[in-house]
Amino acid sequence: MPLIDQPSLEHAVARCQIILAHAWMVRTFVKHSPEVEQFPELMEIVRNVFDLSRALETRVGDPPAYLHMLKKKIGKFRKAAEKFRHDAPLASTHTNFQQAVLSMDACVAALDEILATIPPVTPPADANPAPVAETRRVAQVVAEQEDQTE
Predict the structure, then answer these.
(1) Domains and CATH numbers, the chain
(2) How many whole angstroms separate alpha carbon 7 and alpha carbon 117?
């Protein structure tokens, strides 16, 4: 029996996707701003939004896997948003950058809020790409090869 019903997980994923759409718009603004040429540190938020979005987009149809990946990635995303909050005013005091910082902070807070409302999600079965039996088999083959060379 799952820890939480599937519709609730699907709703959480749908909310996260909307939040990430906002983050993507901030990413697009920053990526195409002329200030990024003079202040390349701004590209960190661009890369982090891209990384998070790409990591999650393949898991939209599997809410437990999506939320598991979000939990893994949110810390790095949070740090990038904190750095952006520091770097953006140094690059420009324009209202667009001020609003971009507020938007990114809101995205992080909203994702954190969603994760806080969801009970622990069991990681997907395929989260470990190298099962123990396969790892042992590979170790055995390596050991046999070493024995043959001696």
Answers:
(1) 6-149 (1.20.120)
(2) 14
Report pLDDT for 119.
78
What is the DSSP code (8-state) at residue 1?
A: -
Would you state the pLDDT for residue 137?
46
Query: Across the chain, how many H-helices and E-strands are there?
Result: 6, 0
Which residue type, as a one-letter code, is found at position 17?
Answer: Q
In the DSSP assignment, the letter for residue 41 is: G
Q: Are 70 and 113 in contact (CB under 8 A)?
A: no
Which residues lie below 8 Å from residue 17, measured CB to CB, with a gap of 6+? 56, 60
Residues 46-63: pLDDT tens digits?
999 999 999 999 999 999
pLDDT of 129 higher than 90:
no
Contact 112, 74 (CB under 8 A): yes
**Arithmetic mean of pLDDT over the chain:** 84
